[in-house]
Amino acid sequence: MDHRTKPAAEGSADAPAAPCPRTGDRTARRPRRPGRARRLRRTLLAALITAAVVVPVSAAARPEIPAPAPAVLAPLAASTLDQAYEANRADAAKAARMAADHGDRTRAAADRALAAPSRRLLLFDGRGTGRAVEVLGDLAHADRVAVLVPGSDTTLETYGRFRAGALALHDRLGPRGAVLAWLGYETPGTVSTTVLTPDRAEEAAPLLRAFLREVRGVVGRSAHLSLLCHSYGTVVCGRAAPGLDVSDIAVLGSPGTGASSASALGTSARVWAARGSADWVAHVPHTSVGLFGTTVGFGTDPVSPSFGARVFRAGAAGHSDYFAPGSESLANLTRIVLGDTSEVTRA
Known about the structure:
Layout: H1 36-54, H2 81-101, H3 105-114, E1 121-125, E2 131-136, E3 144-149, H4 159-173, E4 177-183, H5 199-219, E5 224-230, H6 232-240, E6 248-252, E7 270-274, E8 289-291, E9 294-296, E10 310-311, H7 328-338
Parallel strand pairs: 3-4, 3-5, 5-6, 6-7, 7-10
Antiparallel strand pairs: 1-2, 2-4, 8-9
C-alpha cells in the first residue's frame, strides 16, 4: 500500500473518531484530550513572550542617566541608622543635580524628593532604573515591622506610587510600627520578556535575604517581622523564602511564586495570599513551562486551594489597589503585620 494513504493506527491523534452508536455522528462523544489544556497554556505563554518581544518599549532607547555610586556605609545597626540616612540623602541630592545637568527633569525631581531632610533612606542608588530602600517610622524602636517588595515597572521615577502604599500601611500601624519600602532590585518591565521569567527574582532574592538579616539585627529577636510582596515581587519573595526569619509572608496579585505550594516555599512563616476581584492577573496563565531555553511562568496560583495559603479578602481591588486607604485588603494586611491574625477576614 502507498505510504501516503496508509490508514492511521486506531487510537492515534490522526485516526478518525468512531461513529456514535446512536447517531452515527463522528464528532459526538469525542473524548477530551488530557493534553489540550496544557497545550493551550503553552500557547498563551508563547503569545505573551512574542508580544513582549515585538512590542516596542520606549525606555529601551533611553540614554543612561549619570549618578554617583552608592555610599559605602557601616554595617546596619540601630546606632548607624542616622549615619545611613544622612549619607543616602546626600547621594540623592548629588544624583538630582547630575540628572538635571543631563537634562532629565523627571529623574531629577524623583531624586530631589528622596533627598528631602525628612526622608530616611537605608539605600540609594541612582544608576540605571535606580534602587532605594526607605524607612517609614522609627525602626530602632519598632516591634511590628513590614517589608514591602514591589513588582514590575517600579523605578525611581515611579517610586512615589510604591511609597504611597507603604505610607498608607504605616498610618494604620501606630507608633510602634515601621514599614520598609524595599526597592532593592532592578524590577522587570511589564512589557518585556524578563517579567515572564524568574531571572530578575533569582538576582534579587539574595539581596532581600541579606537585607532581612540586617533588619532582624536592628529590631531584635522579639519583633514581629512581615514580608508583603506584590505582583512580580511575589516571585522574588518565593525565591527568598526558604528559612527566612519572618513571621508572615503575604503575596498580593501574584502571577505565581515559582513554588507548587505554600509548603514548597520552605518557610516556617504563615503564608497568606489575596487577589482582588478587579485584578487582571487572574487571567494570566498560572503555569510554568520550558520555552526558548528558559522557564516561563511561575506555577500554581497562590489563591487556589491546591497551593495551601491562607487566602484573605481583598474586596474589589485592582492590581495596584492592595494598599489603597480604606480598602479591605489594607485592613487585612494591617492585621497581619500587627499579629492580629484571628481578625483577618478570610476569603
